[in-house]
Structures are given as structure tokens and as C-alpha cells.
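User: C-alpha cells for this one?
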Amino acid sequence: ALAFDAAQNHAVATSHLARRVNELLGVENPNAFFGALFHDIGFSASLLMVCDVYGEQAPPVDSLWRELDRIHPQVGWRIAREWRLPDPLPELVKTHRDFGTERPHLSQTAATIVVADFLATSCGAPLDPAAAGDPGVIPLFDVPDSAQVEAAKQHLGLDEDTWGELLLGAPEIVDTFVGAAL
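Assistant:
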């Protein structure tokens, strides 16, 4: 239950942070909000499946986390396709970790998701349930690396002032929306 709650909080916080990134950049991009909301849906679905299959005998999440981390983009992509989410959302869900690759049509939205994912994780809404609510624990899973974050910031044209404004406002956004989905 804790892992599922962390996944839901992370999704909601990331989507609202993506909206804030767009606001500060003066961009209207609903795909960023919805892409961020659904980017880790594969984690949630996989966690639900483990609970359904194993019930009370489910293995501890920390023993499954690496595998869930590896498969969640593909699982999420399958769900997005089954739900018939409009393009480019299925591809964003599948490739949200591939920012800067050969998918230039997704770059602006993917960069926004990378920045929002980093901010959500840094400000109290990590996907990793071991780090949720404890700023002293560094999340181990589904964290954009520093090079990816820097590349995303550069791609979006985030200057130091705008980045500082995002960093200052992100905790309030996370506080406002964490738990709102539960």
C-alpha cells in the first residue's frame, strides 16, 4: 500500500509541476501535464498485479523494485495504448527516460517531464516509497540523473532565475497535491 501511495503521489505532483514549468515558460502543452501524470503508470499497474497475484504473501516491494523499474515504461506504454490515450502520450510513457534521443518531436514535452520528475522527487514526492516523507533518504529508483536534468533544462531554455523560481515553488506544489489523489 505504501508503494502504491508513493506512486500516486509522485504522478500527481509531477503532473502539476510540469504544468508549472509550462506556465513559467509561457508554453501551453497539455501533453506535458498528462504525460507526467501517466509517465510511471507502469509502476502502479505492476504493483497492483503483484498484490492481486500474491495477496498477503506478496514479496516485499524492495525485492521487486529493480525489475519494476526496468519494465515500467513498457507496461505503461501497453496500458496507454489499451486505454487509447491520444498520441503522443503512449510514446511519452514508453520513452520518458530517453530524453535527448532520436525522438525530437517528443523533446519539449519529454524535457518538461524530466524536470518535473526531478522536482517531484527532490521535494518530497519520490516514486521510491523508502524515500517518501524522509528527506534524509536518497531515492534509488526512477530518478532522472543530473546529466539528463541539465540537458532538459538547457533544451527548455530554463535560465537560472526561472530554475530558481521552480526550485522555490516546487515544495508548495508538492505539499498541495501529495495525497490529493488518495
